[in-house]
């Protein structure tokens, strides 16, 4: 559920959401947690990438997941297999997570676990290439995914997501031989929207590019943990085209 | 741009949108035009299917397109090659077409062409599996697309789109050999949400299933044109699993 375009009202809603996001981020900073907001179209592979990420990085970090879906806990259940805290949020008819919903998730997390022991919270947003990009939830960094099956033109047609992203994962590269798609053209279109975003080309199926992604996650956690009171101002964008 | 979940306000917005949609549909009915609202995630292949559709059906019907995109006229330009009227609507930051935007498109159409000569208006919505399903624009029938690359679980996770659809095109079936996807499972999940929806499995690349889709379009236009004053009440859902 969402309103039709109304600039005045929209700004007020975003303003209220931003205040909630800043509050959430203050909690994360207080507990020394890095928070990433993971966003994409439906089916670009967010959950598959998180599965691969948890399989490797839970050996190095204490990770929790806040899992947003309109209905069902299908994705939450997939990630619970990695023995990490997974807080499921059903957004009902809402097309994105907002800071208030995530505040509820943080509340649950702080009640059921010791948040000071957690290093990283991965927020998996509702599958939607438009709306989640406008609603901060308290993250330090935004991760966007674009599947190569979605076509070369998407960064131009859905600019906000690509402008806002700190890291873009171009997913399903294993399908490249079967598609009429030019990955260099995707990269060029992304750069047109956001010259400094980190771009990593990956396949959750073959594992291609995942080490570059894990290294990026490690470097950001390291970066953030060194500056606990400046967590929300780091986000310097490295370039690691894998 | 859209608001966070607010049931009371949301209902008012939908009510206002519905009144506009009814007004648009009254225009279509007056002119004897059938209107289809074509919706899906980004990159599911809406424009590719419309290209294939225009290539064949413009020999039989006078067709016009209302093309919604946040920014750019990339898709509109692809469809203009088929020598049909294409009205491009840029939604800006809005994640869906609403009835007011489409009213503007209808106004342009009526000014620049003779609407009584048009048989079919295809509305291509913004790529988004969530929001467009809630905002009628004056269509008689809703067409949803789901690419097999998006995975089997999408009908369960994004139920509104599948509940609302009159016809579902399962697209990119040519990629089935390269994916771990069970198309029967997709169909079963769709049926769980909407037992009577027409489901047609297609590939814009190989042409598989397109004749079944064209036949469905033909039958709906025929059906609608026979009952000009009941255009919005027909929509009996045939079952043509191709």
Name the CATH architecture of chain A: 3-Layer(aba) Sandwich
Taken together, the total number of domains of chain A comes to 1
Largest sheet of chain A: 7 strands, parallel
Number of helices of chain A: 8
Question: Quick gist of this model?
Answer:
Two copies of one chain form a homodimer. Chain A is an alpha/beta fold and 242 residues long.
Describe the overall structure:
2 copies of one chain form a homodimer. Chain A has helices at 7-31, 46-57, 74-80, 99-112, 154-157, 159-164, 183-193, 210-226, and strands at residues 34-39, 63-69, 86-90, 120-124, 141-147, 167-171, 198-201. In chain A, 55% of the residues are buried. The N and C termini of chain A lie far apart (38 Å). The first copy, chain A, has 8 helices and 7 strands, in the order αβαβαβαββααβαβα. The radius of gyration of chain A is 17 Å and the shape is globular. The first copy, chain A, has one domain (15-236): Rossmann fold. Helices cover 40% and strands 16% of the residues of chain A. By secondary structure, chain A is α/β, with parallel strands linked by helices. In chain A, strands 3-2-4-1-5-6-7 form a 7-stranded parallel beta sheet, sandwiched between helices.
Q: Main attributes?
A:
homodimer; Rossmann fold; globular; alpha/beta; 242 residues; 16% strand; 8 helices
Describe the secondary-structure layout.
The structure is a homodimer of 242-residue chains.
Chain A: H1 7-31, E1 34-39, H2 46-57, E2 63-69, H3 74-80, E3 86-90, H4 99-112, E4 120-124, E5 141-147, H5 154-157, H6 159-164, E6 167-171, H7 183-193, E7 198-201, H8 210-226
Parallel strand pairs in A: 1-4, 1-5, 2-3, 2-4, 5-6, 6-7
């Amino acid at each position: 559920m969402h309103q039709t375009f109304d600039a005045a009202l929209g700004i007020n809603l975003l303003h209220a959401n931003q205040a909630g996001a800043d509050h959430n981020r203050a909690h994360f900073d207080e507990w020394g947690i890095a928070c990433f907001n993971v966003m994409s179209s439906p089916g670009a592979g967010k959950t598959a990438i998180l599965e691969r990420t948890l399989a490797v990085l839970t050996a190095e970090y204490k990770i929790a997941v806040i899992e947003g879906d309109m209905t069902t806990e299908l994705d939450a259940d997939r990630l619970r297999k990695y023995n990490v805290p997974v807080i499921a949020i059903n957004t009902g008819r809402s097309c994105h997570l907002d800071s208030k919903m995530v505040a509820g998730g943080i509340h649950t997390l702080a009640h059921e676990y010791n948040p000071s022991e957690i290093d990283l919270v991965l927020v998996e947003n509702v599958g939607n290439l438009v709306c989640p990009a406008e609603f901060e939830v308290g993250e330090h960094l935004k991760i966007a995914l674009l599947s190569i099956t979605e076509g070369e033109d998407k960064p131009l047609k859905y600019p906000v997501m690509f402008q806002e992203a700190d890291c873009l994962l171009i997913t399903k590269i294993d399908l490249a031989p079967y598609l009429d798609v030019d990955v260099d053209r995707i990269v060029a279109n992304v750069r047109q929207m956001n010259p400094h975003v980190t771009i990593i080309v990956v396949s959750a199926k073959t594992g291609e590019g995942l080490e570059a992604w894990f290294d990026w996650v490690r470097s950001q956690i390291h970066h953030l943990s060194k500056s606990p009171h400046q967590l929300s101002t780091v986000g310097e964008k490295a370039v690691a085209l894998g």
